[in-house]
Amino acid sequence: MFELSRLVVIVAVWALVLWVKVVVAQRGPGFEIDFDAVEIRTQHVAGRVHMVAAEGGNIGVLAGEDGLLLVDDQFAQLTDGLRRSIAEISPEPIRFIINTHFHNDHTSGNENFAAAGATIVAHENVRRVLSAPHFMETVNTEFAAFPDSALPVVTFEDSITFHLNGEEVEVFHAPTAHTDGDAIIYFHDSEVIHIGDIFRARGPVYDFNNGGSYQGVIRAMDSVLLRIGETTKIIPGHGRIASRSDLQRARDSMVTVRERVVEAIAEGKTLEQVIAAQPTDGFGWEMPRLLSIEKITEWIFLELSASSSNVANE
After folding, report:
1. pTM above the 0.70 mark?
2. For labeling, which of 57, 151, 184, 287 is most exposed (least CB within 10 Å)?
């Protein structure tokens, strides 16, 4: 009887420890995903590059005899399924993972993959943010600092280049775009570019509280458009594989919205008046849960109000 009671106490203590770890890991609703119901899909993009889609950010996979290079690694709860799907593309080991930015739906698999031997690479601001508690307004949640084992061990300021599997992989920073730590990954030989959450077909989403900016997203899109050709395939952070014309269309819609808001600011319109005027109307923008067209419009208004003297000349 004593041993049974002791066992019950031990189980209860471990349950409490696990509950505390979950509470400490995040404060807020998080992403609220039924991971058991997630379908993992793979798709060949072009050349040596494939895409793995599930619930978090799209994963880019460079496959070949030199080993695998991944772009992003989604949620930790999906690691086992992702590994099985990636192994169907190539049985070679995963050598490198590049984080496009710090958001947890792109990076929370870091610890699992690093434990299996992958080297995590990211812009220096990604390591800085993940090293401390960080808040994501788009899911209204504060996440705990990542453990050291999940942090990028190779960081860069402007750019870094990989030469792997006969592919030149250019990784470059897009300042103050979706966040302040965005990386764009260009697979030159395969003519594929992974631009993370900088591109979203249903309207821009950026992290206003973590260095993201509307103007920066437009600048990042312009930078990509200058680099790629008509046949280049684009892997976005979420959604289907896109083309240069898809990116151009998204960029042009953002510029039109910017012009509308700048004109309203010049006319002395208030934030409430600008929101009521619906400057995003006509482009089919849809925001993810916990983020609204009104909130995005507010962020655009605040940013452009602060820099209206320079916007008209861009």
Report:
1. yes
2. 287
